[in-house]
Design brief:
Order of helices and strands: EEEHEEHEHHHEHEEEHEHEEHEH
CATH architecture of the largest domain: 3-Layer(aba) Sandwich
Shape: elongated
Structural class: alpha/beta
Distance between the termini: 26 Å
CATH topology of the largest domain: Rossmann fold
Radius of gyration: 24 Å
CATH superfamily of the largest domain: P-loop containing nucleotide triphosphate hydrolases
Strand order of the largest sheet: 6-7-8-3-9-10
Number of helices: 10
């Protein structure tokens, strides 16, 4: 449904995205992850037909038309990173305007107001909305047309809890209907429950494309088990622990066990069998920024 083929976008000597090749299939939800400035918005705008490639191409739909083709753009709906609307217009008036522009049926306005949790605010001027409400209005606008592709740029950035629930509902509904959802984010916590795959951009290049399980495993490998000890570790036990978790180390009164969560029970069992008294235990899960740094080294 969305095909990037060697897509490259340069601004003078600056390369925003370099040789991106990626497919997003019908009925698939794909999150485009990456640190700020990694090229996520550029890639999404190219799919929306808002900028032309320096080289390569972006194709949309079953007939694989170039994204810049006006006919191709009819198959998608796009929510920019920062949606802005006329302050004097009510939410309902904004939706009515975009409904007419996209040729959606009149009943869609009430439907998307309800789905985006804006029922109580539809008659109020947009100038009275909070940032989260404006973002939810933008989500409602994006939902108006019956488009098979939904492009969302940082949709969770300004959303409050109600808006997040509405966003989750939008994504699940589109998945059930067999539509394509492609969205950007740099915050894993808001999106990991939704995406089928995670494409990771680092420095404008595709550094990895991971399933939910693969991403969870990569992050787990970067976790840390921290054990506070009642007394110094007896001789030889650190070496035994390192046979299980090679990066284990002692730091003051703590045994630190970096690495996969699957290694941790065996280390705990070793300490129990050796009579080591543990007075405290905590775990730290792997973080996306650490994964980005690792991918940057190998990209």
């Amino acid at each position: 449904m969305i095909r990037y083929r060697g897509f490259t976008k340069r601004y003078g000597s600056l390369s925003a995205v370099e040789a991106l090749t990626l497919d997003v299939e019908p009925g698939e939800v794909v999150a485009l992850l990456g640190p700020n400035g990694s090229g996520k918005t550029t890639a999404l705008k190219a799919a929306a037909g808002l900028l032309r490639p320096t080289s390569g191409e972006v194709l949309l739909g079953e007939d694989a038309r170039p994204a810049a083709d006006p006919d191709a753009r009819r198959c998608l709906s796009f929510l920019p990173q920062k949606a802005t609307f006329a302050d004097a217009c009510t939410g309902r008036e904004v939706l009515e305007l975009y409904r007419r522009l996209r040729g959606a049926p009149a009943a869609r306005v009430a439907e998307v107001l309800r789905f985006a949790s804006l029922n109580g605010a539809g008659k109020r001027p947009v100038g009275t909305y909070s940032g989260g409400m404006v973002q939810r209005l933008g989500l409602a606008v994006a939902m108006l047309p019956d488009a098979p592709i939904l492009l969302l740029d940082e949709p969770t950035a300004a959303l409050d809890p109600d808006g997040l629930c509405a966003f989750y509902g939008v994504v699940e509904r589109h998945r059930r209907d067999g539509r394509t959802v492609f969205f950007t984010s740099h915050q894993l916590g808001d999106v990991e429950r939704l995406a089928d795959r995670f494409a990771v951009l680092v420095g404008g290049r595709l550094a990895a494309c991971l399933t939910q399980r693969e991403l969870a495993d990569r992050l787990a490998d970067r976790g840390l088990l921290r054990l506070r000890l009642a007394a110094p570790l007896p001789a030889g036990i650190l070496e035994e622990a390192r046979r299980i978790a090679p990066r284990a180390l002692v730091e003051r009164d703590q045994l630190l066990v970096p690495g996969a969560a699957a290694q941790r029970p065996a280390v705990l069992d070793l300490l129990y069998r050796r009579g080591v008294e543990i007075t405290g235990l905590s775990t730290e899960e792997g973080r996306l920024d650490a994964l980005y740094l690792d991918l940057m080294r190998t990209a």
